[in-house]
Amino acid sequence: MPKAPNAEALFVCPYCQTRTADFEALKAHVLAAHRDQGAPLPEGWIRLAVNGLDYRLPVEPEWTLYELLHDRLGLIGAKQFCDRGACGSCTVILNGRPVLSCMTLAVECDNNRVETVEGIAQAGHPLIEAYANNHAMQCGYCTPGFVVAAKALLDRNPTPTEDEIQEALAGNLCRCGTYPQHPIAVLEAAAVLKERTKS
Amino acid sequence: MSGKEWSRMEETLDNLRADPHPQADFKHIGRRLGRRLDGVVKASGKAMYTMDVQLPGMLHMRFLTSPYPHAEIKAMDTSRAEALPGVRAVLRYDDPELPPSADLGGHVPSDEPILPRIVYFEGQECGAAVAAETESAAEEALRLIDVTWEERPFVLDDEAALAPDAPLTYPEMLVSNQYNQGLLDMLTLGDVKAGFAEADTVIEFSSTRRLHTWVGPERPCGVFTWNGDAPEVWVKQQRPHVCKRAISTWFGGIPMNKIQVHCLYQGASFGGWSQVAWNLGGHYAAAVLSRRTGRPVKWTFTRREDFFGGEMDEGVYYYKVGAKKDGTITAVEGTAVLGNQMWPVFHFLKHLVENTRIPNISGQLKVVRVNKGPTVPVRCEQNANTHSLTLIFDHIAAALGLDPVEVALRNDGADGHDTDWLNERKAERGFAVRDSLKECVTKGKAAIGWDENWHPPGTRRLENGRMHGQGFTWTHEWDDSAGSSEMAIRVERQDGTASILGQGADGGQDAEATYCQVAADELGFRLEDVFYNPQFDPGFFRMTPDSSTNMSINGFAIRHAARLLKEQILKAAAAPQGATQRGSFPSPFPGATPEDLDIKDSVIYLKADPEQKISMAEFVRPAGNAGPLVSHENLGARLPFSVPLFAYGYHTQTGTYAPKQPRPRFCRQTHFMEVEVDTETGEVLVTKVVNVNDVGKAINRAACEGQQYGGTYMGVGRGRSEEVVYDPVTGVMLNGNLLDYKIATLLDVGPIDTLLVETGMGYGPYGLVGIGEDIGSVMPALIGPAVFNAIGVWIDDFPITPDKVLKALGKA
User: How far apart are alpha carbons A148 and A186 in whole angstroms?
Assistant: First the structure.
């Protein structure tokens, strides 16, 4: 085995960056510590749980989470309206908290959990029906962002007041002006959730 | 002309009286619908917009934009951009494949350079387009293009453009910065001099409306690809037919039947880009680069690029108003200098003619070109009118110390005539003679508590320390304009459901559901048996709901199609079924004529004996995959095939935009606003708004209300905070983003009442008029009188921002 000029730096564990003196020692370390972990992620890749599904994804350093979800994974529910964190249309839930995916770098999301509007709809969340029933959309471009923000609210506060709903959705812009319908829809969804919990 | 054709023509000219099939009661029309037709697909993030389109191998294209407000490209070196990894093609203004100009869409066929070498506003797409593997590579390449610019003098201010020594802002196209001479520049009625002589009080004032814009949530974009020599195009366009028309003229001509246009859901643009001719420059450049690279090309504007352009009420207005003590207005004189209107065809005092009895009016409109983007109708072309009417009426009411509601009622009328004259016209046309303004006023006053809350200007301080104010305005409904529409309905095989065919172009108005309501009622179908796929392009032309005319034109087309289809169905039901070369089988209603039959809940039945019936599904079904089989006949069964059931309707009208108005408008709208003004910070809080719209006949209630509260938010944003700001020194736009250009949020308006009046006095089918443009247009200026009532000082400079309030209060 050729000897590298800086041998110590070459034998770095690809899982946890532990350094070993030689290749055999590295092999022993990997087998002992990381036997069940599958192949290590190449550099520039991240692991991301999206709507409960495990993804291993190559990401460029400048990609936003929005680009990753919308352009690479085809989750088009996240929408780009303002492109600078002013409108809420690209909102997704990251580790339980609503975030603006256009302002979040994808590389920073390694080992995180993301929930998008598609996941919320797929899980049969009552917000979707409530939004449709109450005409809480017109052109619909900003609607998924509202739904995600509302879902994050209901997750942490299943019985919000109208004021709390307004506060939670105040960061979402709607040019069609559908605002008055959103609190009505969210309250309806909260009532359905309550019924579901009872039964 | 046959009797039937004549009756049809009469119907379109004089709707209510000539309607051969008036509906006494409606099953679906006017009902509050449950779940929105596109509700689930939009709420769940599944609705696809042009921005979401990705095709295999697709390239991303972006434009070079001008850093100067007026300049000329003298030379350009694109070699560094072409060498950038990921860049696949660069299209330059001097490319041999680019013609000097082409039809790039807009209202009427245009003739525009595709990548202009000379620019007339900062941010204008010009000179070059880059297609690359990624958007960021295209962007980076644009920065590597070396341009030698020659700067030219520029003008940003409308009035400054009129100065004799002002530089020409568009020297290649115009010999003078004012360009509407002789084109609706003057509006004259009666004799203003005599009118002012009659007046007890004459006031003069001026107002300013700063530039504001559409802010469509989805940026302008498109995708172009070639299937052989046939283009396939995805457009974000309220009028897809305009794109198709323009594309058919490119490259020496492309047959219309080879052009496939997809118009998906659209992040609304409220008029906006859809009317700007050069918005198709993106498609043209993409078409060239798609052919050159053999790959689909998607073009986009950035958010900032979307900000160039705006609504056509921007400018300065001067008014002189004379009135008698009782509030009767005797004369109005006005001058307005408005900027960059692409179509200077709407005079700013037109509403005074259309819905008041003011006998003497004189207005001069000067439209000037300045070095900013074009202004076009953005919900809508009547903004200059609603601005003027509101301020004229509220200023004169205040000067006379009268309730503005009373002043409105006193001056209601049309074409210089009073309401008696108007009532005669209503009766002549077979309308119920109702006082639309009075009905709207009564409802609105009660809802806002107008009389209880009334106080002299600047006199009511609330417990929270803020000043209370309330404002009122009114006008007529103007949705009766020119347009054409063709729509069709087909009965589907197998289940007998009906599909509406019309050009898709969803902007969110829920128009599709409304067409279904009309078709279902006219056919006698269940509502769930009628569907309109808004993304389908069958090639039929339709007025899309942005075009100042939705139901007033499309409503006729769909209603007529439904009536013709019903005739067909009944004729088929009475006729022998399944005629083949081996024979035919009797009608499901032997011996009956079509007149003996009717349809209810999607079931055809014999009127004399409703128990004799057959559902639409049974009637058309089953559509066997092998076609008719001999066994059917051997068994004595009806052959599984009936006549194809398909009918189209169409409608075309000049409406009230005809040069000589053929028909006065009868439906009115009133709007009331309550504000609180913080005299320490200058902030204006809009605490309640009441909208009352006489829609003639409401078809889709939720859709009407959506336009009322939606328009309120847009209007309050425009009146309170929206302004596109330019740096006067460099001519560069300063706030082309949603952080610095503030549209209304959920917290910016208090409760909004959405009240409808239905007098049936509209020229549309069922006596309807529109509602979509009204509130967003009327609301911005209403903040003016409401703030005046709160602080006792007029701020006639819109938007009314806190700094202007403080200045008016002498605090800044």
Answer: 11
